[in-house]
Write a structure and sequence with these properties.
By secondary structure, the chain is an alpha/beta fold. Helix content is 43%, strand content 17%.
């Protein structure tokens, strides 16, 4: 038999085995009717969707650095597409400093000869030897199914076997790979995952950024106990303008700090905000209000204020050390917050006002301040639906800070977002203080319709890339007429 005849025989055999003859006939009939100028392109477009779905071939882990010079896990996703395995996408896990005790476990090597014990070689090995075989052959476009396999491969709620860092990096990378293979922008792919089984909204909204312009607590080296002093632009502005407003305030704050405290006050903390030698929140809020005016804006109209107290970090033996050697009871601390809200009427959000287990004070703060401002649960919820459902029933907070690596996978974090939305609470998608240069959280915020995103100052590459990604999404949505009016 000639080569041509044997190839034709093989093709016929393939068509018969896969019952493709009728499909092919329909496509060729259409081709003959329409006679498109690019007949080959037409055939490719018709046939491609009928090909076998892509399959994950393998995940490959590696140790890379995060924005704080600590190792973190990066994962490459290889998929088999039309019989060939190729690298489709890669992503890496962020890492927190003020972590909640119920967070998914970051697996670190503990070998003090490497990176002061913070190496992640074991987590990387787990990607290669446990997660990779667990997801091999799965369809990377089905994120929910892959996330489920990742969770099952670990088998523990807090990911103590494989490491939350390994699992988050894998979930991020598979999400990216799915979007690439579906030829969709990541936020559209994630929206389909989020709304699975329900109608995906026809339009998208961009989140309002909560921009951390002044850093304290564990993210800076000074006396300020409160960790984050944030500004939020008026929610009605377009995202581009929101970013411009807050960035101008950021620059003015830098100038003011230098004129008052000298040039070192312009040093930056972990999230790109200034880390000046201030002693208390009142002073810090006052400086920010001055910067808002200096930038030509009005606090409480154009720009609002927000705090992340990360108070578990200064809670000891039933007391809160709100300033060096100044200890307050929970009730005294609540009075202190109430005074801040009264003295600074632009203040509209307080995160982690109380220790992650001081539930009574969380409830009291909701009774006293819950109607006026957002009370945001970060360490108290750790993006965990078990804690969140308890918190919703007992009215601990009215907003959820959503961090994927607190729970492990994107799908689990989406479950928490859905639960909070069903309870009519707000969701703030958040970065970590140790970050990487991927911008998955920007797409996630748009996909879920979260009203807020918290991703640091408008400075430092790992923060700015998230804001810049939102600029790109905004432009695309406007061009496609898909931006919510
Ligand atoms: C927080 C975060 C992010 P970390 O407390 O909200 O700003 O900090 O990542 O250190 O937990
Ligand atoms: Mg926090």
């Amino acid at each position: 038999m000639s080569d041509t005849a044997s190839t034709a025989g093989k093709i016929q055999e393939y068509l018969d085995d896969n019952k493709l003859q009728p499909t092919l006939q329909v496509i060729i009939n259409d081709l003959c009717k329409q006679l498109p100028s690019d007949a080959f392109g037409y055939l490719v477009n018709q046939l491609l969707p009928k090909c076998a779905p892509p399959q994950i071939d393998k995940l490959v882990g590696r140790e890379v650095l995060d924005s704080r010079a600590n190792p973190t896990v990066e994962v490459d996703v290889y998929a088999i597409v039309r019989d060939k395995s190729r690298l489709i996408a890669r992503s890496a896990a962020p890492s927190g400093a003020s972590t909640g005790s119920n967070e998914a476990m970051e697996l670190r090597d503990g070998d003090n000869d490497r990176y002061m014990g913070k190496g992640v070689k074991r987590a990387v090995d787990n990607v290669n030897t446990i997660l990779s075989p667990a997801v091999a052959r799965a369809n990377p476009t089905d994120l929910a199914a892959v996330d489920d396999l990742l969770c099952k491969a670990d088998g523990t709620e807090l990911k103590t076997k494989v490491g939350g860092n390994a699992i988050t990096a894998a979930s991020f990378a598979v999400a990216e790979a799915g979007a690439i293979l579906l030829d969709l922008p990541l936020y559209k792919h994630l929206a389909n995952v989020f709304y699975r089984g329900r109608d995906t909204p026809k339009t998208y909204r961009l989140p309002t950024p909560m921009v951390n312009i002044l850093n304290g607590g564990k993210h800076a080296g000074g006396n300020l106990k409160i960790q984050e002093f944030m500004i939020m632009p008026n929610a009605d502005l377009p995202f581009t303008e929101k970013l411009r407003y807050v960035t101008q305030v950021y620059h003015h704050l830098g100038k003011l700090l230098v004129s008052k405290y000298g040039v070192s006050a312009k040093n930056l903390g972990d999230e790109g905000g200034y880390a000046p030698p201030l002693d208390n929140a009142d002073e810090a809020l006052g400086m920010i209000e001055q910067a808002i005016s200096a930038a030509g804006f009005t606090a409480g109209k154009d720009i609002f204020l927000a705090l992340d107290c990360a108070s578990s970090e200064f809670y000891k033996d039933g007391k809160y050390e709100i300033a060096p050697k100044k200890f307050l009871t929970g009730d005294e601390l609540l009075n202190y917050y109430e005074k801040l809200v009264n003295d600074h009427p632009a203040l509209r959000s307080i995160e982690d006002a109380f220790d992650e287990k001081d539930y009574e004070m969380w409830k009291k703060s909701m009774e006293r301040l819950g109607d006026k401002i957002m009370l945001v649960g970060d360490d108290v919820f750790t993006t965990n639906t078990n804690l969140l459902s308890r918190g919703i029933n007992e009215k601990w907070a009215n907003a959820l800070l959503l961090k994927v690596n607190q729970i492990g996978t994107i799908s689990e974090a989406m479950n928490a977002a859905r639960m909070m939305f069903e309870a009519s609470g707000q969701v703030i998608v958040s970065h970590r203080s140790g970050e990487t240069t991927n911008s998955v959280i920007s797409d996630l915020a748009v996909a879920t319709g979260a009203r807020f995103i918290k991703t640091g100052a408008p400075a430092r590459g790992e923060r700015v890339c998230k804001y810049n990604r939102l600029l790109q999404i905004e432009e695309e949505l406007i061009n496609e007429g898909l931006l919510e009016k």
